[in-house]
Amino acid sequence: MKHLDVCLTPDLLHLHKLDNSIVVVADIFRATSCMVTGLAYGVKSITPVASVEECKLLQDRGFIAAAERDAHKVEGFDLDNSPFSYMNERLIGSEIAMTTTNGTLSIAKARASAVKVMVGAFLNLGALANHLRSEQYDVLVLCAGWKGRPNLEDTLFAGALAEELKDQFMLREDGTLMAQRLYNQSKENLLSAVSNSSHVRRLQRLGIQKDIAYCLQKDLYDVVPVLRGTTLVAMN
């Protein structure tokens, strides 16, 4: 039987064997929610990069560039890290370069060893689960966390995906069981469950509560982003 495991922070990724695994990267507040939203609204591709410098180089080559550090937009770039910024009609058909504090770094870390890298959010939970059921590989959910530390919202998403796939995948590691149980305790009101979390407090100080509520909505889109080479595109 296939296995589903959860890595609670990229700093623990070295403890997991990836050579037979699809890695699903989750950065719920807000990178992977932006990626799902952008592709759902007609963005052609998103190229995630680990550093601001790499993002600037792509911007100089004509990409629309999104750069975020510590939940703030980096000066000189086109987009911030709010999913609402990706709903603009001018972005339809565009190629976007993106760097964020945690999410794009997690993708970069997973890319070297994983069979495939995909992007998950509550926004595409059902579509992602449906696709993973059809795959022959194990799954590792990589929670982006915050600067090497676990966070609540990504762990809740990992638990939600584990709950969706529990009949098709073996859930064997304690981190996976912890995430699943946490989600089941919280699923009736995710917004309340994260209300005192560190990243929610961080975002609330910026006055963007609407982003928090939006990113916790389930199954708004059937888009499944997948990394092709170095670029995320919507899986056909």
Automatic annotation (TrEMBL):
Transmembrane segments: none
Catalytic reaction list: (2R)-O-phospho-3-sulfolactate + H2O = (2R)-3-sulfolactate + phosphate
Names of required cofactors: Mg(2+)
A Pfam short name: 2-ph_phosp
Domain of life: Bacteria
Single GO molecular function: sulfopyruvate decarboxylase activity
Record-listed E.C. numbers: 3.1.3.71
InterPro entries: ComB-like (IPR005238), ComB-like_sf (IPR036702)
Uppermost EC category: hydrolase
Keyword set, alphabetical order: Hydrolase, Magnesium
Keyword NADP: no
Signal peptide residues on this chain, from the entry's feature table: none
UniProt family annotation: Belongs to the ComB family.
HAMAP family per record: ComB
Name of this chain's protein: Probable 2-phosphosulfolactate phosphatase
UniProt organism field: Dyadobacter koreensis
